[in-house]
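Quick check before the chapter quiz. The format below is the same one you will see on the exam, so make sure you can read both the input and the output lines.
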Amino acid sequence: MGRTSTPNHLLRALLDEAQWNGATLAQRAAEVAAEQGITLLFDRKSVSFWLSGRKPRSPAPAIVAEALSRGLGRSVTEAATGLTRDVPTAAPKQEDGTDDAAAALDLLGRAQRRPWTPGVGTYSLTRLEIPGWDQTAGAARVARPPRSEAPVTVEQVAAVEQMARLFSDHERTFGGGQARKPLAAYLAHVVAPLLHCSAPSALRRRLYRVATRLAYLCAFMCFDDNEHALAQHYYRVALRLACEGADPASYAVTLRALSVQARSLGHHGHALRLAETAEATGYRRATPTRHAFLLGQLAVAAAADSDRTAALSALSRAERLMQRATSQVSAELIGGYHLASLAHQQATVRHLLGDTKGAIASLQTSLRHRPAAECRSRAVVTAQLAELQLRSGHLDQAVHSWQSFLDDFPHLRSGRVTAARRTMRAHLRPYAANAGVRHLLARPEAR
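Here is the expected output.
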């Protein structure tokens, strides 16, 4: 840490405003760091050093700024904490609408190659204050003058669409950890330059729509790999691209994905608001299957927010839509949905509402209907099933499920799946005397 003789009056004022002491700030900052998958040890002594004028290395200033933003209910920049060593690099300007999405794709592509990139920062609750489509539709600027006179060709757009299908298939089977960096590079070096080129309006809209799907897919890969700050930024880029491509359906699906992420990180109120906005945005333009997809997440978010009535109502509507749908499979590039997906949402709602037995039955239904190619989703669901079986006192069933989970594990690169393996080991440690548990933990995949 660098030293300075000047006390940090900016940080002191923020602590006074939040009515926090040093221990509270240290605890809140550690919680934010844990969301990013970063292990940083903060304590009262750390905060005392900062108040005396010492400046921590990155990413500590960004983490402290986010912790204070949450505590104060307003945005606090890194510079406002007085902890930055230099003038901070600006966040992607796309976040506040003053620059285009292509510039953000370039910055985020560079961020994938570094452990910490100024301007990307932490997962931020401030970035979840997102309006619905009706409030943003006026921002669509497909006809914006291009920066390059080179025209986009039909063949170039078709190639991007083919690459989108390849990346989607790969992620579905092998998880997000392996291909997220190649996809980020493809977005930065191939797709972003095309967004600056001239094209007829129909072709330009087609380009923006596939770019939206690729940005969404990269976001989901980052989410699957527990890179939550990057995931949030890519989702925001996808929202911007959806606006510029006049694509409300993708806008709704991306809001839903942000809700999923927020709920997974414990921000239940934000998750519910995003799910409500997604459903309100997408229901008028959606097929029954796609509408069920939006309603299922609304049910999950409401259950997480302890609204039992709203959760069961949304889930019931999703179930009725799937029963009426002419096709019970939505094979969209983003937001694919089928009976296995619905059953997984049913399981999550039931678990959140305290019906463990019903949740187990729904997870088993989800696995029966899960397409064979969806290896990563099958592993995630199987791990959840095993945890609930163990919690219900069915050790042998849990061991059997975790055996199936480990069968899939070697094929996957996914932060979520790796975390599920750590959880498995922690849960089974008290049962090490059981022969089935010993055999399971002896497998190479369990180590």
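If your answer matched, good. The first strand starts at residue 148 and ends at 151.
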